[in-house]
Amino acid sequence: DIQLTQSPSFLSASVGDRVTITCRASQGISSFLAWYQQKPGKAPKLLIYTASTLQSGVPSGFSGSGSGTEFTLTISSLQPEDFATYYCQHFNSYPLTFGGGTKVEIK
Amino acid sequence: QITLKESGPTLVKPTQTLTLTCTFSEFSLRTTGVGVGWIRQPPGKALEWLALIFWNDDKRYSPSLKSRLTITKDTSKNQVVLTMSNMDPVDSGTYYCAHTAQRSIWGDRRCTDFDYWGQGILVTVSS
Predict the structure, then answer these.
(1) Extended beta strands in B14-92, E state
(2) Most buried among A13, A77, B40, B42, by the most CB within 10 A?
(3) CB-based burial of residue B37 (10 Å sphere; 0-12 exposed, 13-18 middle, 19+ buried)?
(4) What is residue B90's three-state secondary structure?
(5) pLDDT score recorded for residue B35
(6) Virtual torsion, Cα A80, A22, B49, A34, nearest 10 deg
(7) What confidence tier does B105 reach under pLDDT thresholds 50, 70, 90?
(8) Residue B93 burial (CB count, 10 A)
């Protein structure tokens, strides 16, 4: 199975900060990586697919990069509504797996 | 607008079989390239993929749970059903169904993400 390791697992930041979250795959997954945002009590929301393609309707302040085994999600200027937990997930092969999550909290 | 909604029991006893139904709208599992997956999340923990069924009845399962899972579709009802046998308290959590569809990627067609999710159903396993 391909393991996805996210870092950090917890992040404290202020409104306006630039935030970067990393997702490392245990083996190469090309660019078959997606990022999701989840708020408490809600379903995950797709932000980015194929590592860097912004899902329709997602603010342009979110961006993704990477390929192979190392990927990043960047929020260029943290907004109050961006405080949430973020997950990466690969779709390279089966079984599909998710990262352990990164909780972004208000500093 | 694609929507999905999970339904089923919110409380099951240990050793019982859980049956969850995902009812969806604005897409069809007769359409080439479309799939519906199940993902769960124990309270306060990360997401875990369980199973996926495609328009052509191709089925994929998490290896760690494969012996306990069955996923089926009823295209006439726009439903996908997941059964999980021998439930245990550690199986408690929120269960989500989600839509996926092939995208055109570098000259091929591949599923790359779950783009629409149901609201989830909280299942508790307790005697």
Answers:
(1) 18-25, 34-41, 48-54, 59-61, 69-74, 79-84
(2) B40
(3) buried
(4) helix
(5) 97
(6) 80
(7) confident
(8) 20
Residue B26 and residue B6: Cα distance in Å, rounded?
16
d(CA B71, CA B53): 7
State in Å, rounded, how far the first CA of chain A is from the last one: 36
Asked whether the beta carbons of residue A49 and residue B119 sit closer than 8 angstroms, the reply is: no
Which two tokens mark A54? Answer: 């912004």
**B27 in reach of chain A (CB within 8 A):** no
Say if the Cβ atoms of A50 and B46 lie within 8 Å: no
Interface contact B44, partner A, CB < 8 A:
no
CA–CA min distance A77, chain B (Å)? 24
Interface of B with A in 99-118 (CB under 8 A): 103, 105, 110-115, 117-118
